[in-house]
Amino acid sequence: MRFLLFIVLAISAIWAGDYKLKYWKAGESFGEYLTKHKIDSTKFYSQIAPDDVKFLSSIMSKSPFFENSENGKLKEALIPIGEQMQIYISKMGDDYKFDIIPLKYKVVKDRVTIKIENNCFIDIKKATNNPHIATYLKRVFKDKLNFKKLRKGDIVSIEYEQKSIEGLPWDEPKIEAAYIKRGDSEYFAIKEGEGYKIYSNKESSETKVVTSSTSAKYQAFRYPLRKIRITSKFTYKRWHPILHRYRPHLGIDFGAKRGEPIYAISSGKVIYSGWMRGYGKVIKIDHGNGVVSLYAHQSKLLAKVGQRVKTHQIIGKIGTTGRSTGPHLHLGVYKRGRPVNPANYLNHIVKINDGVTIKKSVKIVHNLRKELPFRAKIVYNSLKKENSNSYRWKNLDSTVKIVIQKREDKHARVKLRTTKGDA
Ligand SMILES: [Zn+2]
Fold first, then answer.
1. DSSP state of 327
2. Distance, CA of 402 to CA of 396 (rounded, Å)
3. Of all residues in the chain, what percent carry a pLDDT higher than 90?
4. Which of 76, 166, 171, 247 can bridge 68 by disulfide, Cβ–Cβ 3.0-4.6 Å?
5. Beta pairing partners, 210
């Protein structure tokens, strides 16, 4: 009997962690998501605090989230909103519970070296247990290296960082450095600003050192009201006095009188003008380069979808429509679908685009190691430390310590020290 119980517990423990990574369907509303899972939305919305309804429209299109299903029925779902909080849906009997909880993710730093067996995409996925690394790696090398030409025996080494939730990758992997050996050719990519600098030792036209320079674009942002009175700041964790829980407030609230004009914070194109659950009468303006502003609770909308607006142009009037306790403006700013603090934009000239332009230099590198910058050399040199039997590297943080000593004469010394830890 005890033995049987043990088996049941073991199986349910496996189920409990059975999350699957999904991507939010572009344009899908939260209500549509509930319907898809045969969840009664009216009943569901009735248990959500008025303030929380707004976050349901903060879910980003195509963004990753996690589902735990049993026999095709949704058991649990974790849907990140912003960078620190997430919606948590869980099945309780026949009903579903709703909550907003802090996002718990781990940052995994890893270095993996792979000897290509047959297909680099499959091999990289297998070695990293991450379906996105190869795609990002291909992007790092862009046109400088044809991934299709990688053959059996070629070597790929990657140093990267990945956020993970429930053991599954979340958000984009950050590739810090990468090394590829294709036949006699060696390629090295190291992160530099927003892009990568590629080094190679191969003496052919495609191995010329390619450097990218940036020409940034700037845009001015102004306040949305004539008189500024902030009643609620942007925060991921706002203590809710009634619910006794932390709740995010992914925008800034400005106190104002009903009917006061609302101004566009910058020039752009109106992409939404109408009613939105929780937000009432809303206007959304696309400022280009992934920046979108949102103006909620208006009494009157004065701009139409498709209309181009100038900075400080009147787009509507203050009201208290939607879930609101009094006349005010809720201003949200989104960067690539992710809520960001509007305070970083208002009354500032903001760099909104790095506008990468590629400049080609004709320098050919013979001694790759000599040409590498200091940090890249650390990675490159430690590549040689690799055990030739095993191509899987040990985690740099737990087993190898890099000690950098800066001396008076500015010659930095690097020490690689192995410490005890799990391999
Ligand atoms: Zn607000």
1. S
2. 9
3. 21
4. 76
5. 198, 360
| Span from the CA of 311 to the centroid of ligand 1 (angstroms) | 22
Run of H or E residues at 368: helix 368-371
How much distance in Å is there from the Cα of 165 to the middle of ligand 1? 28
Strand ranges in 277-327 using DSSP code E only, listed in sequence order? 280-286, 291-298, 300-301, 308-309, 314-317
Amino acid 372: pLDDT: 67
158, 112 contact by CB (below 8 A): yes
Cα-to-centroid distance, 295 and ligand 1 (Å): 10
Mean pLDDT throughout 383-407? 37
Q: Which domains occur in the chain, in start order?
A: 2-102 (3.10.450.350), 106-211+360-394 (3.10.450.350), 220-353 (2.70.70.10)
Please check the confidence at residue 416 and state whether its pLDDT lies above 50.
Answer: no
- Residue 192 CB partners (closer than 8 Å, separation 6+): none
Number of Cβ within 10 Å of residue 370's Cβ equals 8
CB 271 within 8 A of CB 285: yes
**Distance of alpha carbon 116 from alpha carbon 267, whole angstroms:** 50
Helix (H), strand (E) counts: the chain? 9, 29
Query: Residue holding tokens 């572009």?
Result: 26
What is the residue whose two structure tokens read 């046109």? 143
Distance 286 CA to ligand 1 centre (A): 20
| Type and span of the H or E element at 23 | strand 20-23
Q: Locate tokens 């142009």: which residue?
A: 313
Mean pLDDT of the chain: 75
User: Are the beta carbons of 359 and 212 closer than 8 angstroms?
Assistant: yes
pLDDT value at 377 more than 90: no
- Name the maximum alpha-carbon separation found in the chain: 76
The band of 393, judged by pLDDT with boundaries at 50, 70 and 90, is very low
Q: How crowded is residue 260: how many other Cβ atoms within 10 Å of its Cβ?
A: 16
Neighbours of ion ligand 1 (CB under 5 A): 251, 253, 330
Residue 331 Cα to ligand 1 midpoint, Å, equals 7
